[in-house]
Each structure stands twice: as structure tokens, then as C-alpha cells.
Amino acid sequence: MNDAAAWTGTGVAIAVALVSAWKAHRAEQTSTEAVAESRRQSDALDRMAVALEQRLSSSSSDADSEAVIKWAIEPTVPDGYWLLRNEGTATAYGVEVVAPPKGLVIRDLPCGDTDLAPFQSARFSLQSSGWGAHLPGELLVRTRGQSEPAIVRLPPTS
User: Fold this and answer.
1) What b-and-e string marks burial along 9-30, b requiring 16 or more CB atoms within 10 Å of the CB?
2) Cα dihedral 29→33→36→40 (10° resolution)
3) Does this model's pTM top 0.70?
4) Distance in angstroms between the alpha carbons of the first and the last residue of the chain
5) Residues 37 and 72 in one domain
């Protein structure tokens, strides 16, 4: 009888050790993803700071230059969210993504009621539905008063 109890105790101990090791691995994986996201956000803030510094220096030296709207899209985290950022010098009014791709799971896509000042962004979700639909290589973005939409490249997510 003692042998059965010993084997049972050993089995329970092994099971507890395996569960603990699996939980530690998951925590490490989550931590690694958080570090990568933090690094991406830090790089984006650095790019914004450089662009703002350039904008301020160019606007003070060339006040007569025409204001422009320049778009960039960047992924935020591996969960399918993106930032549509106005990297230009003018505020974009009535921002909308024209003819969003079919067969994708889309949330919070700008649809004409969004205004973005220079260096502001709109966060949206764009994910493959898993039924053969792939993320597009570009999106068409239009602002109020603009007749032709701008083609904005969607960077690869890998």
C-alpha cells in the first residue's frame, strides 16, 4: 500500500512541476511580447520627435511653405491593430478609408467623422478572417474636400 501512495505522490508532484513549468513559459513569452511592443512604441515616438523637430525648424525658416497631409500606417501590437498617422503639416478633416477590403475583420476604421491634426493618429483593427482573405498591401485614404484618395502602404506584419 505504501508503494501505491508513493507512486501517486510522485505522479502528482510531476504533474504540478509540468504545470508550473508551462505557466512560467507562458509568462516569459508574454513578457517578451511586451518588451517588443515597448520597443516598437519607443521607436515610433523617436520618429515622431524627429519629424516634429524637422517640422518646427522648417516652419520657422520657411513660413510661406504650403501645408500638406502625409499618411503613414504602422502596426501597434501583434493583435491586428494599426495606427493611421497624419505625418504632414496640415490637419486632415473628415478622414475616411475608401472601399475597405472585403473578407476582413475590420473595427474602428475611420469613416469620415475623424479629424487628425499633424502627428495625431487613429487606431483601427484590420485582421484576416481566416477564409482566404489576406491583408492588402495598401489602403485608400481620403479627406474632406479631396477628390482622389491617397494610396497609403500597409507595412508587412512579419
Assistant:
1) eeeeeeeeeeeeeeeeeeeeee
2) 180
3) no
4) 57
5) no
DSSP alpha helix (H) spans, the chain = 2-61
Range list of β-strands (E), 42-149: 71-75, 81-86, 92-98, 104-107, 111-116, 121-128, 138-142
Question: In this structure, what CATH number is given to the domain that contains residue 94?
Answer: 2.60.40
Can you tell me the distance from the alpha carbon of 156 to that of 154, in angstroms, rounded to the nearest whole number?
A: 7
Distance of CA 44 to the CA centre of its chain: 11
Compute the average pLDDT of residues 21-34. 81
Enclosing domain of residue 89: 66-153
- Identify whether 70 is part of a domain: yes
Number of structural domains in the chain:
2
Look-up of cell digits 508513493: 6
Report the distance separating Cα 85 and Cα 68, nearest Å.
13
pLDDT of res. 87: 94
**CA–CA distance from 130 to each of 13, 143, 151 (Å)?**
40, 31, 25
Quick check: 93 pLDDT over 90?
yes
